[in-house]
Design brief:
Blueprint lengths: L1 H9 L8 E4 L12 H12 L4 E4 L1 H7 L8 E4 L3 H7 L3 E4 L5 E5 L4 E6 L18 E3 L5 E4 L5 H7 L7 E4 L4 E4 L3 H7 L1 E2 L5 H7 L2 H13 L2 E2 L1 H4 L2 H4 L8 H12 L4 H10 L3 H4 L1 H8 L5 H17 L6 H22 L4 H17 L6 H16 L7 H7 L3 H13 L7 H10 L2 H22 L10
Parallel strand pairs: 3-6, 11-12
Antiparallel strand pairs: 1-10, 2-3, 2-9, 4-5, 5-6, 7-8, 9-10
Helix pairs in contact: 8-12, 12-15, 14-15, 15-16, 16-17, 16-18, 17-18, 18-20, 20-21
This protein binds adenosine-5'-triphosphate and magnesium ion.
Magnesium ion (MG) binds next to loops.
Amino acid sequence: MLKRIINYFDDKTRSSNPSIIDGAAYSLTANMISRDARKVVETLQNAGFDAYVVGGAVRDLLLGIKPKDFDVATNAEPSEVKSLFRRSRIIGRRFQIVHVQFSRELIEVTTFRSNDQASQGAGNKNIGLRQQSKTGMLTRDNIFGSVNEDASRRDLTVNALYYNPSDNSIHDFTSGLDDINSRTIRIIGDPSTRYREDPVRLLRVVRFAAKLGFGIDSRSAKPMSKLSADLAQVSPPRLFDETLKLFMSGKGAAIYALLREYKLFDYLVPQANRLANDGSNNANCLFEQAFINTDRRISSNQRVTPAFIYAALLWPAVEKLAEQLREKGNSASYALSKASSDVISKQVHITAIPKRFTIPMREIWDLQLQLPRRGGQRAKRLAENPRFRAGYDFILLREQAGEDLDGLGEWWTRYQEVSPEEQQQMADEAGKTVKKRRRSRGPRKNKTSEA
Ligand code: ATP
Ligand code: MG
């Protein structure tokens, strides 16, 4: 009991009367908000409702980062919002919001929510609008509330700042501005309860800490490892989307380190985590390198695909299983194909990777078997394969991570640079070397092991 009282007074995020601060103190001006978002706020306010720009956009503007999009929060209910905007629709069941479409952007309008347990009492008209599972996970959250209540149901203090462009004021209910100033990621309310309500918040803490380069407050960090297993309750499609935000954020390397530190990676890609923990292979180097390369590509505006990252994360598991299958006498191509299927089918139960990514993943893996066999006409055919570039980049990645592939990456690099005549020469040479090697090794044990 005493602990609970102490915790209560210790909790800086307890929603109270807001501090209202002039945006000018943070060099914030209304014209930093997109025209469409301002229009939505104005229309709602003119109809007599309260409305603010909220969440990531306010946080990013305060930090001098260009916002990705603008979200609006209001006390108008979804149907009232919908009636004010012609091109709008209500979406979601678990959490209803209104999408207002403009020609250049989409503005998400959310009605203030309450996180208040008491409002679930008998006879309350809100019954059934907020549902929790046995472990405390919120499965439905449609109880509307005041702006104050809305602030306390958000995830992080830095994500709970409300900006009113009409008078350039920032409304801070949870000491979010202090945390912006001290560069701290802090969960609002009791961290364990908030993680149990929605385990994706564990991932959001890590993502925003890496994105903003902020430290994680110790009270918020403490229960994270212990609650990591709750991620298993998140639906595979939602968890897949969250992994995209983590892996393709441009801060993948930092995020990977934090996911490992807080035992979250174990529940995202367990087959990879197991091998990364086992020091006898270079899986961890491969994963780190894959994230470093992806981050670098993102920062130089090069194309990135989740297929490449997932191919890297699952490759050591595929290789290990394929080796076991080969040892049982299966051909190399059958072993690889069977291992690929098994590893993918285990992963999609956790993060639902769509087919449009699992197919190229398999093609990248397949090329790892094909690219060393480049004699005669094979090199030309391989270089024309639509997935060649990804397969070749994957060879380079494996070499960068410390694997010895007998100069394969360099060979293919040179092959792409020389004239067609020289290419043919290279391929002929490579064919001879393979034949010589085979002869010196003696007859093959398994006739089907090389296609
Ligand atoms: P980003 O720059 O990635 O869009 P964001 O902070 O805008 O960051 P969103 O996922 O767009 O993040 O969510 C908008 C806002 O909704 C957040 O700022 C936060 O206040 C709230 N929010 C989002 N997800 C959760 C969650 N799982 N639990 C509580 N609040 C959340
Ligand atoms: Mg956002």
